[in-house]
Amino acid sequence: SLYVSEYFSQSAQKLSFYSWYGNAKLFHFHVPEDTVLLRWLLQASRGKGPECTGMEITVHFRHGAPPVINPLGTHFPANATVRPSYNISITLGTAVQNTTFVNVSTPAAGDWFIAAHLPQAAGRIEVKGFSTPCPYMFQADMFVLRLTDMPVLEPGVPMPHTVVSPAKPLHVKVFVPKHAAGMRFQLSSCVTSEQRACTVRVLLGSITLPQSFQRSLTCTGSINCSLALDSPPWEKWLQIMVESLGTANASVSVEMLASFTVCRPGSTSSFLNFISLNQSQAGARPGAADSSAPAAGEAPRNASGQRGSCLQSQPVVREDLDVVSVRYRLLNGPSVPVSSLSPSLLLLNLNTGMDSGGSLVVNLLLNKTSVGLANATVAACVSAASPVLSLNATQNCSTAFSQGYPLSVSMSSAEAMLIVLYPQTDDWFLSLQLLCPKGQGDCPSAEAKVTVFAYLTPCFNDCGPYGQCSLLRRHGYLYAGCSCKAGWGGWSCTDDTKAQTVGTQNLATLLLTLSNLMFLPAIAVAVYRFYLVEASVYTYTMFFSTFYHACDQPGVAVMCIMDYDTLQYCDFLGSVVSIWVTILCMARLKKILKYVLFVLGTLLIAMSLQLDRRGVWNMMGPCLFALFIMVTAWVHHGAKRRHCYPSSWKRWVFYLFPGITLAFIAISVYAFMETNENYYYTHSIWHVLVACSVAFLLPPRDKHKKPWAWSQKLTCRYQICQNDREELYAVT
């Protein structure tokens, strides 16, 4: 045998602390066919700065779809199927780098996904630039060992093979045809090169994570041993590995035989007719298929036709609506006839490779008037790769190498729903069959009508009223996740364990908006002292900060008067410009110079906010430059007057010191105390403190100006008009 090794790598990603699925970094690989060994090389590293501490990184693995994870221990939506993901932990202690290997023998071919993340986020709101977060990097590389000439085991044909040694197991494969209801594998004529009784172990199937349904068979001696499998995966290659358990130097000769039991579909709605319908009727109306398959809906009524078939297939059309959004439409109408003789089968195609990033929703509704038996139950199974062809009251829903999801509807419970989160890339099947209690003689002739609604959606229920469905991307692969707000959590934002009440949401909105009214005293002081430009800036800041926070609320108490991004930009611009004009006003510059700096600084601040809206230097830069100008001007005034400036101790004690103290407290609250939980009152405190500090820091009016001096400027109105009239008269 010839083995070929291949290497696949992806660029490293910076890890984030976990608060929702978007924080997990996803890696997407494709494992080729005939792979006998898969090895993951996981490399984790952290920065070398003092802010970097030991950290535990969690890595999840899954075949066929992104892993469904729940690091926060929240609740999933009702009717959702959740199976724990396979994960490992990588610890970064004193070493700045950790390398871990994960081996998977005989892995399943197709898509494999890895998701990595840090522990739960602390919830603290960090201002960009005040603290330096430690970078934690993660990279996943994949090595595969592939067999280029894997022998093919033909069905029904005995094939002799030799296991050279225990260190070199034998790998063969067999193709499972469509409509295979069962498979039987038989191993015989097992003998060693030393003519002794041999012991071998046979592994059928490939390993998938998080759950693996690989079947094992141990054969001892020359006695024939066999293994029967129900519902093997249709139209797939099945790997078989035979390894010797004997001595190291002895080879083993075996003879293998694989045989299949084929299921014959109903003649009126066979899979071949379904394929032709799917090709010719793509995008057609449901009624357009009536002429080509008029008997499809009437097939279940023909009991004699059902006795000769093991399933009744219903033609289904896949209708792509949008990214990770598909609707399945039954050509014969939404109602599916279900009987007890053979299961009705629907094919849900999810094998495009781009469907595994959403949620598959299957809804069943029983028409109570269609069931002639009061105690009858319609059992259903949703499974991947192969359908469940023998439904019973135990509702096991298991196939040869996978576990399906059971559903049931009856007269007492006429509706059932199933949500499959991140369904794996494959052909999915919905099997329905009528089950009757023992002793019901009319069961073979009874029939039930079940309305089936099946669709693929990016986020179930669009994440509800307290969540936002976000479309995530890793290279060319798209998947969706819910970002919850107002304390709600869970996969679809349905967990209300920590949810805020409506009263709390209203309180948060009122605090964040009404706290901006504390700018009214600062505006009144500015107008009283004839600082009209400064008063205009404070009015602008108060207005946009009020309506920005009214639009920024996570719950139901939201009001947006314009686009959210516009409100946010205007709020940030007004806040920084308010600080800029206040400090320049304190500098006591000449008016022409002051107003030039007002305009020039506002333009530069607007540019910097457009480049990086949340950068700390967008606020600190203008503040420090304005403080430098103010200190320079005060030194100049003091040197010119030959005493300290401002000269009044009352000005320092009753105005400057309280204003500076309020400003420092406000900056400390804004930079170091805000978290997601206390944001609505800590940020309100920031509003109050900043507005009050402005009222204290504004300098007094000029001595030659009276209070409200701006109103006296209007007294010359009549004189202006008189002069204009005189000029007009002179011209004429």
Automatic annotation (TrEMBL):
Residues 303-312 have a biased composition (Polar residues). The chain crosses the membrane at residues 507-531, 592-611, 617-636, 652-673, 679-698. Residues 285-300 have a biased composition (Low complexity). InterPro entries: EGF, NGX6/PGAP6/MYMK. One of its GO terms (cellular component) is plasma membrane. Keywords: Cell membrane, Disulfide bond, EGF-like domain, Membrane, Transmembrane, Transmembrane helix. Residues 455-494 form the EGF-like domain. It holds the Pfam family DUF3522. Residues 285-312 are annotated as: Disordered. Its main location: membrane. Disulfide bonds join C459-C469, C484-C493. The keyword Cell membrane applies. It is found in: Cell membrane. This is TMM8A factor.
